[in-house]
Structures are given as structure tokens and as C-alpha cells.
Amino acid sequence: MRGAARVGWAVCAIAACLSAGACGGAAGYGGAGVVTSSWSEPENPLEPANTNDVQGGKVLDMLFRGLKRYDPKTAEAKNWLARSIETDDARHYTVRLKDGWTFSDGERVTARSFVDAWNYGASLRNKQKNAYFFGYIAGYDKVHPDSGGQTADTLSGLKVVDDRTFTVTLSQKFSGFPDILGYAAFAPLPRVFFTDHAAWVKKPVGNGPYLVDSYARGSAMALRKWDGYPGPDPARNVGVTLLVYTDNNTAYTDVLAGNLDLVDDVPATQLKNVETDLDGRYINTPAGILQTLAFPYYDPRWNTGAARKVRTGLSMAINRKQITETIFRGTRTPATDWTSPVLGTAGGYRPGLCGHACDYDPAGARRLVREGGGIPGGRLTITYNADTGSHKQWVDAVCNSINNALADDKACVGRPVGTFADFRNQITQRRMSGPFRAGWQMDYPLIQNFLQPLYYTGGSSNDGTWSDRRFDRLVDRANAEPDQAEAVTLFQRAEEVVRDEMAAIPLWYQNGSAGYSARLSDVALNPFSVPVYNEIKVS
């Protein structure tokens, strides 16, 4: 519990700053009608195109509204600021905006608010983490080239027609383009973002149902309801105070003690008693999150036809049912495909697609590993980051399962890396010699998002550098297909290539979990596992 004492001090200090109340109750932290919620410091400044972590996404979901919004229950992409998004060919789009939307500083939201924001996000010189989301738009290769400096300042595919209309030209057909526009990277930005950027970063201004009251990095962010919010989903509470915790066990304990209202990541160690501890104030709901084991295909030992048999055999050596039931107690479900149940079958989820390769079959596992020439290097090392404390238990369980199935107690071992930053650095520097833990939380609810970033040649999150021309061709065809049902079918055929090659081993679908105090009602998590803060009521 690295942060226990430190966190307690931090929360008391925050309470003194945010209200006159003493440290000792949730109301003292944020005041009457204010939700207090656990939080981790975002990795980057809260610019929409620079935020790709869940914690930063929580804030952006309160501060911004975009062209589309994903329904907090169904994940359906619904028009929000967009009155219409039309195309005749899945490449040229005309976007028309609804009238009446403003930023919280009073500035009108116009077509220019979107076009300027997207140009900023795409620009190489601005070093935005989500720049690749704009890679579909014509001219991206000029503003964000793979090498060398940018040769253009703006995307040639974006044109402002008038205050409420702009056009988008893509570099290739992509029929699903409108549905990705609910992702935060595509949010509009006010002029102050560009004219006084430093001030904006300290206190962001958006067009969502909340305003930022104060932000102390490393400690807390206080948001309050924007009374002038013009949208149909106003905040039903006075505000939300996000308190930084370095240990979710401490946050959970604070909810039990009445010192915190909401913890949205219940520790695995607490799952056994959570229903009793919180008297039913516990949420466990499906989310668009998949955990896998990825492989380093830049290591030639893993990039052979024989190694495919080894990967399939290793998948069959993992007792997913036992691990999810014993360790995760209903917050994980054994994966049988490479997407997520939240997509629904119409959206591309195919339960059972993995087939026998995802069944626990020790005899079959031994046979395939033997036929494939054995584990490259003689021992399997699964690399994971050890700083959260949550991965060691399941990695050890996976290795124990593999060792038992292969009848070799030295076949598999975990390889912890001290911090997530070091872990990611080793991955990006291509220093993996064996499988490594990989988790994917959907950016938007399309089957394409579970496949193209991870497995397409040169994909933005293809950390193992897997490549298959059959897969790439099917994805290209799916993106260009104007009929949504046919596009999904093509993506599923591409997923079959992932299955046949066992490009990554699917482990389990991850649920979102949360526990909350008796002060709160109408608490829910959206399909991205983020609390729907604006719907929460405080008694």
C-alpha cells in the first residue's frame, strides 16, 4: 500500500482547500451535492488530442461534447453537435452543426472550432498522442509525415464552408468514419486554447456539462455544474471532485469509511467481500476491454509457421475459466474472440470464434507445442508492469496453468518490469523476447477499432509488428464498404486470419467495476468503464 499514508495526507490537504469542512466525510471534501471520486493523475495535459488514458478521458467526458456521443448504456453513436453527417461515397463527408451550442466562456461553437482543433491535433509539431486518429483525413501525410518535417500546416481534407458547415475528404474510403467522431480527440476547441494555451491547460475550457473550478496537479481537480450548458444531458449534481489516489485499496477503504463517494476500480483483493461491505452499492458491468498476450514478431523465433503452433498450444494451456473465477470473481469472462461482447453480434462480436484454441486442453497443448519445436529459447517469459500490483497474481496463475498443462514446472515464468513507463519503453524499443501483457480498451464501439490498430501492418498499436497481407486487404475492403453489415462481415473475416495465425492470445473480457457511498444514487458505468458522472445524484 505504497500510497496509504501519503494519500491520506493529500486528501486532507485538498479538503482544506476546497471547503471549510474538516477532513472526515465526503461532504467535507467537495461540499453538499458534490460527488467525490477516486482518480489517477493523467499521463498528459488534458488536451483532447493528447489524452489517451482512461483517467484523462474521465475529465474530457465531463468537459466536452463532440459531433457524436456514445450512448452511456448501449454505446450507440448518436448525433450530438452534428445535425447531419452525409456522404455519397464513404470518402467525401459534409458535416452540418446544430445551432445554439457554446463553450463555457460564451464563445459559439462553429465549424471552425472543429477544423482548427483537428488541424492542431494532426500537426507533427504539436506532438499530440492521438494524432494518428486524423490519419484517415487527406493531407495527413503532409502535416504528420513518418519521417522528416511537416510540409503543410493544415489538413487538405478539411474545409470550412460556413459557420455551421464543413467538409471532410478522406485519403481512402471509410464507411465507419462518422461513428468514430464521438471519440474525445475530435472535440471542438475554443479560441482561448490557441491564444492563451498555457492558461487553458491549467484550467481547461470546454462545451460539456461541467466547468473546471480548480486543478492542483498530483492532488485534485474540482469541477462544478455549468448552469448554462445547452445540451440535453445536464449535470444532476452540483459538481464532481476528483481526488488523486496512488492505491485503489486506499480509495476503497475510504469509501467504506465515508471519506469518499466513488471508487471505480474495485481492487481484486476486495472482490470477495465487496457486496457485503457496500450493502449492494457495487457495480460490475461489461466494458469494451480485452486482455491478451501479445508476441514480438520482430524476433524471428516467434515469426515462423512452427511458432504459430506453439502460440496455439500455449492458448490451449491456459485455464481461463479457473483463473477468472478464482482471481477475478466475476469481473472477467474468458475470451472467445478478439473483440468485446459490448459490440453485440450486429457490431461484430462473434462468441466462440476462437474455437477449441481457447479451450483448456493440456494434451492438445503439449502436442502442438511439441509439433512446433518447443517454446523458443526453451522457456516462456511473460513480461508485465509490476507497479499497480494487480498483474502479478494473474500472470503467475497463467504460468502455473501452462506449467501444469505442459508437465514442466519451469516452462513459464513472469518477468516484472518496475513501472508502466519502463514497460512501455521496452515495448516501443522492441526489446521483448517473449509474450507480454496487452490490454485494449475501445476508443469507439466499432469492430474496426479492435482489429486495425492492433494487427494492421504498421498499425498505431501494433506493438508486436505482426503483419499479414490477407488481413490488411480484408480491412481495406471493410473500411471501403458502404454497407455497414457487409463491412462487419469483412472485418470478421479479417479476424479469422488473426485467429488462424493466433496473432495474439485472447485471455478475458474485462468488466467495469465500481463501489459507492450511501449518499449517491443513479450510479452507472458506460461501456468504456467510465462513471456517467452527470447522471449521479447526491442526497
What does this structure look like?
The strands form six sheets. Strands 11, 12, 13, 16 and 17 form a five-stranded antiparallel beta sheet that branches. Residues 1-28 have low confidence and may be disordered. β4 (82-87) and β5 (92-97) form a beta hairpin. The protein has 539 residues and is of the alpha+beta class. The radius of gyration is 24 Å and the shape is globular. The protein is built from 17 helices and 19 strands. α10 (305-316) runs antiparallel to α12.
As a percent range, the share of helical residues equals 25-40%
Number of strands: 19
Radius of gyration: 24 Å
User: What overall geometry do the principal axes of the alpha carbons give?
Assistant: globular
Strand-residue proportion: 15-25%
Helical region count? 17
Largest sheet: 5 strands, antiparallel
Mean pLDDT score: 91
Distance between the termini: 31 Å
Low-confidence stretches: 1-28
- Main structural class: alpha+beta
Oligomer: single chain
Give keywords.
539 residues; alpha+beta; five-stranded antiparallel beta sheet; four-stranded mixed beta sheet; 17 helices; 31% helix; disordered N terminus
